[in-house]
Amino acid sequence: MSNSQQKSIREKLKHQVTKIGKKELLKGSLVATVIAASPFIFDLYQSVPDVKVWDTFLFTYHSGYYESANVAAWTLMGKLLPLLLLFIWFFTNRHWWYHTLLVPIAMYIYGIIDTLNEDLIFIEENQILYLLPVMAIVIPSIYLIRAKMFNKINDANKTLEELEEEFKIGGKGFWGKFSDYF
Questions:
Q1: Which residue range is the domain that position 2 belongs to?
Q2: Total domains, the chain
Q3: pLDDT tens, 22-68?
């Protein structure tokens, strides 16, 4: 192989590595920006007027249970923002226990559904009944992973940190993680 061919291959590899690095930098910057802007995202409810019927060019909102569009927006933002942060944590976490985050994610999703349902008398009543199916899957799964880790500790001379590193899930996208569940 000639020097010019080797140089060409090096330049192609350098370009590919730079391209991958730029994508990761862009993703990381986007996640960091969303997390840093979370107080401003939460404060978006302040732009909603304190009226029972809120007319915009996109929609008309009739506040039933809350009797104020502002209070309804404040309640909704109090559930949407933690859900957004939990999703970021879930999809960026590489530890073996990241599936446990599905329980609070399900809890917040249920809370958002309750918030949007204006016919409710009591908010978040009997929430545990809706979370039981999620917990019935997540808790035994985490226990089995933990048991598998401790069996490997007893069979090998690995430290807990080395086993956790072995169980880390790396580099999967949304559909890759989604396919792990089904």
A1: 1-36
A2: 2
A3: 777 788 888 899 999 999 999 998 998 999 888 888 888 888 788 88
